Amino acid sequence: FTVAPGTYDVTLQFAVPQSGRLLLSTAATPGYSADFSNVTTVSVPGTVHGLGTRDLIPAIYDAATPAAAIQGQYLTVHPTSFDVEVSFAVAQSGRVVLYGAI
């Protein structure tokens, strides 16, 4: 993954051919965040995050100080309602942050 200085051209290389979507965001992209406590599932309806797209870039952090990035077992985004659901194998506390791709 590289970003060219000046032009900001993005290059993403894979070891083998892949299909999918590349999502990019800038610091200026509006976002949404919410805390959660001792849960195995975090649900954020599209009407709540208000980002208006299925192309979301998630970041999930634990409740430690300093906060560490964690991954959910599953993360889904509904293609038309944009509802987000994050599932964990064990109960977690922390914060979910969502950004809309550009």
Show the helix and strand layout:
Layout: E1 2-3, E2 10-11, E3 31-44, H1 46-49, E4 56-62, E5 74-77, E6 84-100
Question: Which structural traits does this protein have?
Answer:
four-stranded antiparallel sheet; mainly beta; 4% helix; two-stranded antiparallel ribbon; 1 helix; 102 residues
Walk me through this protein's architecture:
This protein has one helix spanning 46-49, and strands spanning 2-3, 10-11, 31-44, 56-62, 74-77, 84-100. A hairpin with a 6-residue loop joins strand 1 and strand 2. It has 102 residues and is mainly beta. Strands 3, 4, 5 and 6 form a 4-stranded antiparallel sheet that branches. The two termini are 18 Å apart. The radius of gyration is 15 Å and the shape is globular. The longest helix is centred in the middle third of the chain and has 4 residues, at 46-49. The chain is built from 1 helix and 6 strands.
Return the string of H and E elements: EEEHEEE
Mean pLDDT: 89
**Helix share, percent:** under 10%
Regarding quaternary structure, what we see is: single chain
Structural class, by secondary structure, is: mainly beta
Apparent shape: globular
CA-CA gap between termini: 18 Å
**Uncertain spans, ≥5 residues at pLDDT below 50?**
none
Tell me the strand percentage band.
over 45%
Radius of gyration, taken over Cα atoms and rounded to an integer in Å: 15 Å
